[in-house]
Design goal:
382 residues, alpha/beta, 2 domains, 5-stranded parallel beta sheet, 22 strands
């Protein structure tokens, strides 16, 4: 076991990160793409809450060729922690940051003529070449030049000095649910590539597929794919725990646990937590857990979320506090201070799928994973 956040190493609330599960999921990605297709491991947002440094190290060891992040700061953190693999910042850039990209050998997304010109100018002043990936908007409506306006953008970017075009990419908007739109995006992207092919401007890397593209749309793979959520154990198509790819099932990488910190007997009619949204119906046993929305356990799980203590499921009693939650284990329930508590994931024979919590609060796995705060230590289990 390795704990990344040493300052919180003795906290009873912790996120256990299974390295074997992470590698299992990466192998699923590998099995879905051709041997010559590179894999960019997307580790933005602290590797979707799992710990960017260790996860990046493990995925590179497993065979990832590239690293994808959202912001320059994430890329610089990885460089400072010994990651030498190519890193692409997938998001839009602020012009004043360009020299830091170049000096740290971090690849830049260019999404307009003005940005390409600014990158070229900064690289020239530094006496270096900037490595860029051209971003085309084929239907996401986020960043990138619209596919129908791409020619001038591409021509200008390739004509500028001090720029090495390493790749071109776009992003799928509904690849988990809409084959028609995905087909349109693919056609638009291919239209741009056709122009580049005719003019001998195809860069070394062409990438379009996200997690859902990897498993649903082989024709979007080109020569590099960008898996994200699937590597962390979640199917972008929905909750299908029995689905297999070449004999493997996705395995959630994170398990969130805590421990019982307090136990008391409360008479009938006792209000629990802020605003007394829960009142005991009979004399019962209430346990307190040292975890709350300050740790990323969503407040919308108040009176809804379930936990497992000593092999039994119990519902949260009252509002989730910033640092604590209470659980009614009933008049005959058994719990002791220090007992392990499952918040989501697997513990022994018991399971609370993260998807079930998402259904309760009306969100997606990505959000709940990313919400787990830095004061929750990540404990890596090999």
């Amino acid at each position: 076991m390795i704990i990344e956040h040493e300052i919180y190493m003795n906290r009873p609330t912790r996120a256990e990160i299974s390295i074997p599960n992470l590698i299992n999921n990466f192998e699923i990605v590998k099995s879905c793409v051709a041997p010559d297709v590179k894999i960019m491991a997307v580790v933005k947002a602290n590797a979707y809450g799992h710990g960017i440094r260790r996860v990046t190290q493990e995925l590179l060891r497993a065979g990832a060729s590239y690293v994808g992040v959202a912001y320059l700061e994430e890329a610089k953190y990885l460089r400072k922690n010994g990651i030498t693999a190519p890193i692409l910042v997938l998001g839009a850039i602020n012009l004043e940051q360009i020299p830091e990209f170049i000096n740290n050998d971090i690849e830049v997304t260019t999404s307009s003529i003005d940005k390409s010109m600014a990158i070229s100018k900064a690289a020239g002043e530094l006496g270096k070449k900037a490595k860029v990936h051209i971003k085309i908007d084929t239907g996401m409506g986020r960043i990138g030049v619209q596919w129908y306006n791409a020619v001038k953008f591409i021509d200008t970017t390739f004509s500028l000095p001090n720029i090495e075009v390493k790749g071109i990419f776009s992003h799928l908007a509904k690849s988990e649910s809409d084959k028609v739109l995905t087909g349109k995006q693919l056609s638009r992207f291919e239209e741009v590539l056709s122009y580049m092919q005719k003019n001998n401007m195809i860069p070394p890397l062409v990438h379009l597929a996200n997690s859902a593209g990897v498993i649903n749309h082989k024709d979007t793979h080109f020569n590099m794919v960008r898996p994200g959520i699937i590597m962390y154990g979640y199917n972008p198509n929905g909750y299908f725990p029995e689905q297999e790819w070449n004999g493997r099932k996705l395995q959630p990488v994170m398990t969130l646990k805590s421990k019982v910190s307090y136990f008391k007997v409360c008479p009938a009619g006792t209000g629990i937590s802020y605003n007394h949204t829960y009142t005991t119906k009979e004399q019962t046993r209430i346990v307190t857990l040292p975890v709350g929305y300050g740790d990323g356990y969503n407040r919308l799980l108040s009176n809804k979320g379930e936990v497992v203590i000593r092999g039994k499921k119990y519902r949260i009693a009252g509002n989730v506090c910033m640092d604590q939650i209470m659980v009614d284990i009933g008049p005959d329930g058994t719990a002791f201070n220090g007992d392990d508590v499952l918040l989501f994931g697997k513990m022994g024979d018991c399971e609370i799928p993260l998807e079930s919590l998402c259904d309760m609060v009306g969100t997606i796995t990505y959000e709940l994973l990313c919400d787990i705060s830095s004061r929750v230590p990540r404990i890596y289990i090999d």
